[in-house]
Each structure stands twice: as C-alpha cells, then as structure tokens.
Amino acid sequence: MNCNKTVLCILTAFVFSSQANLLWTYEGGSAPEHWGELSEEFKVCQSGFNQSPINIEDAIDGKLKPLKINIHTHAQKIINNGHSIQINVNDDDDFSIDGSTYQLKQFHFHSPSENKIKGKQYSLELHFVHSKEDKEIAVLAIMLEEGAANPAIEQILKNIPKEKKQEKELGLHIDLTTLFPKDKSYYRFSGSLTTPPCTEGVVWLVMKEPINASKEQIQKFQKALEHSNNRPTQPLHGRLIVN
C-alpha cells in the first residue's frame, strides 16, 4: 500500500504502521530516533526538512484571524491503539482557512505534549486531524494543563476500551466544545505527521490558549497509555511560524 496516495492511508498512519510486520514504538530500538531506519516508507522521518513537532518561538506577526470552528457533538468509535487514545468521527465538524474547508476525521492524545510553546511542554496535547477534498491534511493542536475537570475528557476516559486495538462504539454524544479554548488564536506552520511515515505537507495550527483537565484526569490518560507517546521536537530548518 502506498501511503502517499490516499487520505485514508495517511490518517491510518496515526494508528498503525502501514506495513503489518513493522512495529514502531516510542521506546527502544524502534523509538523515534530509529523510525527512519525501520522502512523505506519511513525514511522521511530521518531525512525530512519539514518535520513535526517543533518548539514554537519567535513567531512572525501575520495578523492571523481567529479560527471559526463548527463544533458538533458526535463521536463514533474509540480505540486504544497502543500508540494513543483515538476517537474516530463521522460528522461535519470543520473549519475554513485559505478559502478551503477541512473536515474532522479523528482526534487523539499525546502525553506529554509533542509541540512546545516557547520551550514549555504541557501535560497533554490533543490533535484534531482534518482533511479536505484534495487530500491535504491539517492538524489542529490544543494543549492541556492541570486545572478544573473537563466534562468531555471525563466521558472519553469512561469509555476507553480495556483491550488494546479494539474499537468500541460510543453510544453517546460527546460535547466537544469543552475541548476547545475560548480564544481561537493560533500559531501556524508547515510540518508533518508526528508518527510514521512522517508524511510532510501537513498544515499545523496550534492554539495559543490551553484548556484544562484535572490532575486525576491527566493521570488516568497517562495510565491508559502506559508510556510517553511524544515524538521529540524537530529542527525548523528555516521554516517560519506565523501568528
């Protein structure tokens, strides 16, 4: 399967390696520093010049307007795929940028955060993965820090499957509004998937304002993941960050 040809394959890369007999991990001999050696398909993880995540600093004032996000409440399935806790959706959540509309496909979590903001690493990072008709991918990232309990996070935690790689139907509507900050200002840069095959050409939008989750909720996520699932920050190689 050539993962550069279909959105489905690219999005699946957030879940499993595209080659069933190749397992990438966050530890040991198949940890991030070795991803580019695991497969010809993964070489860009090592050789790419637009890799994610990054440390966000020295942003240029591009006078970006706050995002207008259409947030709904439907989520279909939840899975602990061994790399992250992921919720797959089939709804019309979307946002528009550059005259194009991106639709939400899935969202998942990383602990600790993959991107950093001015050197600060957060307890959790939430990635909303979107695509548009021409197959371009956009990731909307939101940081989570310790604070008040978050209702949507609580619903997700209650439904994490006990078995890994087993999808579970969500028989409820999750109110996603509490997963977005009130201030929709953001940083923007060009990057890649943060998991193999590390495909580049991904539009990254990182919200400036974090949302809250309680200490207990954060600890439950970390326990469910069993290990850290953050790729280290990558060199900018001259890329610009705009806000």
Work out the helix count: 5
Q: What do the pLDDT scores average to?
A: 88
Our estimate of the beta-strand percent is 25-35%
Helices and strands, in N-to-C order?
HHHEEEEEEEEEHEEEEH
Low-pLDDT segments: 1-10, 12-21
The biggest beta sheet reads: 11 strands, mixed
Radius of gyration: 17 Å
Count the strands? 13
Task: State the secondary-structure class.
Answer: alpha+beta
In whole angstroms, the N-to-C terminal distance is 37 Å
Helical content band: 10-25%
What is the strand and helix layout of this fold?
Blueprint: H1 7-12, H2 35-38, H3 44-47, E1 55-56, E2 69-70, E3 77-80, E4 85-88, E5 94-97, E6 100-110, E7 116-117, E8 124-131, E9 137-146, H4 151-158, E10 168-169, E11 186-192, E12 200-207, E13 211-213, H5 215-225
Describe this structure in words.
The protein is 14% helix and 28% strand. The chain has 243 residues and is α+β, with helices and mostly antiparallel strands.
